[in-house]
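User: Predict the structure for this protein chain, please.
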Amino acid sequence: MSRRSLSRSVWTRFAPVLAIAGAVALAPGLALAQYSGGGGGGGSDGGANFAPIDDYVNRRTVTIRTVPVGVGCIRAVGAVGYDPRLNQRLFDIRFDSGVIAAVGVSAYENALSGARTGADAQRALAGAARDAARYRRDQRSC
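Assistant: Here is the predicted structure, written as structure tokens:
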């Protein structure tokens, strides 16, 4: 293997790692830029009419609810905030089911996505229940 091909193979092996490291290095600046008092400055007046980053209008309240769904536990994370620049409330809801529960829920999603009729769905649900049985969790173990 020549020196040039060796350096090319090293680059292709570590390129994703370098890309992730670069994104992690830039993340704090990007996160600060989302707030009115942070990073980017923004408008022509240098952000003089915006609240500082620690002001109450930039705070977000987060509620976390755990809901058992079928054979898995899905966490619904809801964040409510206020954007003073747009003068409106912001809502953000995301779902996080964890690795084990996600596999169990995926069995149901895969089964129902291929169903074309009600009978197909009934047969698919029986197979999904069998496939997801090992990932079953109750609400206490979520």
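The two ends are 51 Å apart (CA to CA).
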